[in-house]
Write a structure and sequence with these properties.
The protein has 140 residues and is an alpha+beta fold. It has 3 helices and 5 strands. It has a single domain, classed as HIT-like (HIT family, subunit A), CATH 3.30.428.10. It holds the Pfam family HIT.
């Protein structure tokens, strides 16, 4: 597979911090998080833009975003959750993906270079454990 997004979504890329997956989607921690808990939701089938996604996969992406937003609020107590997606030439993975980013008042967040707050990128395994523990408590 040449597409990085396809390799991530299908578990081929090494050192992934997968926090949830089903037959249609994979949810992983971003390797360069803007804030701790920054998550990507990717369909396993290749799509570039949101308007290409079949209805079943689109519902699965939205269901996962609702579930993970609940978990991120529970774990990190953010002031809000940013949900975003870039398409076309702005899609850096050349594969559809949705970002879920915990936000805090005054966090200085702008879409540019990652903030790397307090070394969040170095705590990805611990972040994964926290989120999966709450996922299992709330949804299993």
């Amino acid at each position: 597979m040449e597409c990085l997004g396809c390799r991530i979504a299908n578990g081929i890329e090494p050192n992934l911090n997968i926090i949830f997956e089903n037959e249609l989607i994979t949810c992983v921690l971003d390797i360069a998080p803007f804030n701790e808990g920054h998550t990507l939701i990717l369909p396993k089938k290749h799509y570039l833009d949101v308007d290409e996604i079949d209805q079943e996969t689109a519902y699965s992406i939205m269901d996962a975003s609702q579930m993970l937003s609940t978990i991120l609020k529970h774990v990190y107590k953010p002031d809000g959750i940013r949900v975003s997606q870039d398409g076309g030439k702005f899609n850096d993975l050349t594969h559809y993906h949705m970002h879920l980013i915990p936000r805090y008042e005054g966090d200085g967040f702008t879409w540019g270079e990652p903030l790397h707050p307090d070394g969040a990128e170095k705590r990805l395994p611990q972040t994964k454990e926290k989120i999966i523990r709450v996922l299992n408590q709330l949804f299993n």
